[in-house]
């Protein structure tokens, strides 16, 4: 009975360690593998190691080492169905990286707390070390996975934009914002919101001055002179309300052409209103335009003004 206790501990901590290593190899190279397959493989790997540990005790260290690595490589090739040299090399490289991380961390932990007790207690500490380490790794991975998912979702909503107006054309990146419900009373369509810095590239010098005046005017009321500019100079006043702002205003200009592309494929080609904002977007370096919620419906409905 004295021998059963350390064997069970070995099975447990080897299962956890093998599962973590196989899990990360799956994530990096074999995403098609199912979670249940990883669990079964970890159990097989763990039992194989324990059998090796208890059946090769009387052998020389060299023979034991050869048998151990032959077993590991055979199990990896069998489980991941590796048939090419390049894939084998890549898989073993990833495996060794995670093995070094796992083994090095556990060894450091055990050395730090200076375990000199009997084997059973030492195995128990090993199990605790692996469990703590595995929990930390899984927690870090989950956080990274959520971050990658958010970034992936953001990338899906980013498009290439080409805007033409008064003989000028600019290209930039735009973010599709389903929450951008600002609608122009002139067109009856959603407004593309562009940063003031980017808008300067398609505005005439006089228009730039008018935009600056409107953006710096803190009064909530709109004078008749501002409304007159819509007819005289094509400078429109867009009113909106947001958090902390009531009856705010934004200058707007008409774009002769707004083209939305994804991977060089034209998704939308339309005309529309550009609202010019003095505020910087959160991801200023990623995009310069917020697309309205109805931008893709325009092409479907052929509702092009």
From TrEMBL:
<feature type="transmembrane region" description="Helical">
    <location>
        <begin position="124"/>
        <end position="141"/>
    </location>
</feature>
<keyword id="KW-0812">Transmembrane</keyword>
<feature type="transmembrane region" description="Helical">
    <location>
        <begin position="37"/>
        <end position="55"/>
    </location>
</feature>
<keyword id="KW-0472">Membrane</keyword>
<keyword id="KW-1133">Transmembrane helix</keyword>
<dbReference type="GO" id="GO:0004190">
    <property type="term" value="F:aspartic-type endopeptidase activity"/>
</dbReference>
<protein>
    <recommendedName>
        <fullName>Sigma-E processing peptidase SpoIIGA</fullName>
    </recommendedName>
</protein>
<feature type="transmembrane region" description="Helical">
    <location>
        <begin position="92"/>
        <end position="112"/>
    </location>
</feature>
<dbReference type="GO" id="GO:0006508">
    <property type="term" value="P:proteolysis"/>
</dbReference>
<dbReference type="Pfam" id="PF03419">
    <property type="entry name" value="Peptidase_U4"/>
</dbReference>
<dbReference type="InterPro" id="IPR005081">
    <property type="entry name" value="SpoIIGA"/>
</dbReference>
<feature type="transmembrane region" description="Helical">
    <location>
        <begin position="6"/>
        <end position="25"/>
    </location>
</feature>
<feature type="transmembrane region" description="Helical">
    <location>
        <begin position="61"/>
        <end position="80"/>
    </location>
</feature>
<dbReference type="GO" id="GO:0030436">
    <property type="term" value="P:asexual sporulation"/>
</dbReference>
């Amino acid at each position: 009975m004295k021998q059963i206790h350390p064997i069970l501990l070995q099975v447990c901590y080897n299962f956890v360690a093998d599962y973590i290593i196989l899990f990360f190899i799956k994530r990096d190279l074999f995403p098609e593998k199912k979670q249940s397959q990883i669990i079964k493989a970890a159990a097989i790997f763990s039992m194989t190691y324990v059998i090796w540990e208890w059946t090769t005790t009387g052998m020389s260290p060299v023979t034991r080492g050869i048998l151990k690595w032959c077993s590991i490589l055979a199990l990896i090739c069998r489980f991941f169905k590796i048939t090419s040299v390049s894939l084998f090399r890549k898989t073993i490289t990833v495996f060794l990286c995670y093995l070094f991380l796992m083994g090095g961390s556990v060894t450091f932990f055990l050395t730090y707390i200076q375990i000199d007790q009997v084997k059973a207690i030492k195995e128990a500490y090993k199990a605790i070390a692996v469990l703590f380490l595995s929990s930390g790794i899984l927690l870090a991975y989950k956080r990274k996975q959520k971050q990658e998912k958010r970034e992936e979702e953001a990338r899906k909503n980013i498009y290439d934009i080409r805007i033409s107006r008064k003989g000028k054309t600019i290209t930039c990146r735009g973010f599709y914002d389903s929450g951008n419900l600002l609608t122009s009373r002139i067109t009856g369509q959603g407004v593309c919101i562009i940063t003031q810095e980017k808008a300067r590239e398609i505005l005439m010098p006089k228009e730039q001055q008018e935009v600056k005046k409107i953006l710096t005017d803190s009064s909530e009321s709109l004078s008749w002179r501002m409304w007159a500019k819509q007819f005289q100079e094509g400078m429109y006043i867009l009113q909106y309300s947001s958090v902390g702002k009531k009856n705010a205003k934004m200058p707007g200009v008409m774009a002769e052409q707004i083209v939305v592309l994804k991977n060089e494929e034209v998704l939308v080609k339309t005309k529309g209103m550009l609202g010019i904002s003095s505020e910087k977007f959160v991801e200023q370096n990623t995009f310069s335009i917020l697309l309205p919620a109805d931008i893709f419906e325009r092409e479907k409905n052929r509702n092009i003004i």
